[in-house]
Amino acid sequence: MEKPGKDKWRLLHDLREINRIIEDMGPLQPGMPSPTMLPRDWQLAVLDIKDCFFQIPLHPEDAPRFAFSVPTINREAPMKRYHCKVLPQGLKSCPFICQEYVASLLSLVRAKRKDAIILHYMDDLFVCAPNDSILQHMLDLVVKVLTSAGFQLQEDKVQRMPPWKYLGLRIAARTIVPQKLEIECNPKTLADLHSLCGSLNWVRPWLGLTNEDLDPLFNLLNGEKGLVSPRELTPEAKTAIEKVQKALSERQAHRCEPNIPFQFIVLGKLPHLHGLIFQWIEGQRDSLLIIEWVFLSH
């Protein structure tokens, strides 16, 4: 199967029978690590592990269980048999294994330099240090431990200069905003609306979009469940989209100040309560540092 927009192909391997008998390990990380916990003005670098899944070796006793056949053209010869030697894509709990394997390697680096930070999510790495010297040392350690384990880094995706782009966010020396987000202003079907609401749920912690702000949109998810079932925006839903667009252009979150305590405040009125994790720096022009907005489920 050809990858979209690339001159590369992906092997489609039917793993349904194997997946039925593999124990469900579940996600190791409950969510994406927040870059707001990276101290402001610290130096950063973003790394991307190339083909992370395909660099993790299978145990030799398990490898033959992932066998597959490749037919010849016009059946002119017997099919050739192969088996995977590395973690196959589509394997149940593959993300769990990938996270656990890479995390075990990075723990060696963290133990050597406790004055720096490594954020790890799947094949994305964020290395943060108080100065360039420590950052370079951390990068040398990370690259060494990963390449020694057989991993490769995507050189064209290494980022050393601001703004850094990481998991859909645009990170500056002190502030964090979502990368350019295309808002579907006129969803026509339930599928369109699901996509829109999913995007909004993702940016909410950084922009402070409350349940009350978004209720007119999320209420449209009720009704017919077919993905192509029609949807039409109400006047209230159109107003909600306008609020979203304004928040995207005006609001931001902040990288933390490591020497200032975190505070939490509950805002709003029942039943639309929400919270804010923040820091307050006395005597500065911009005293409020927004770390993360917290919301009840819809």
From TrEMBL:
Signal peptide: none annotated. Residues 1-171 form the Reverse transcriptase domain. It is an enzyme of class 3 (hydrolase). Transmembrane segments: none annotated. It comes from Hirundo rustica rustica. This is ribonuclease H. PANTHER family: ENDOGENOUS RETROVIRUS GROUP K MEMBER POL PROTEIN (PTHR41694), RNA-DIRECTED DNA POLYMERASE-RELATED (PTHR41694:SF3). Its EC number is 3.1.26.4. The keyword Nucleotidyltransferase applies. PROSITE patterns: RT_POL. Keywords: Endonuclease, Hydrolase, Nuclease, Nucleotidyltransferase, RNA-directed DNA polymerase, Transferase. Belongs to the beta type-B retroviral polymerase family. HERV class-II K(HML-2) pol subfamily. Pfam families: RVT_1, RVT_thumb. One of its GO terms (molecular function) is RNA-directed DNA polymerase activity. It comes from the Eukaryota. The keyword Oxidoreductase does not apply.
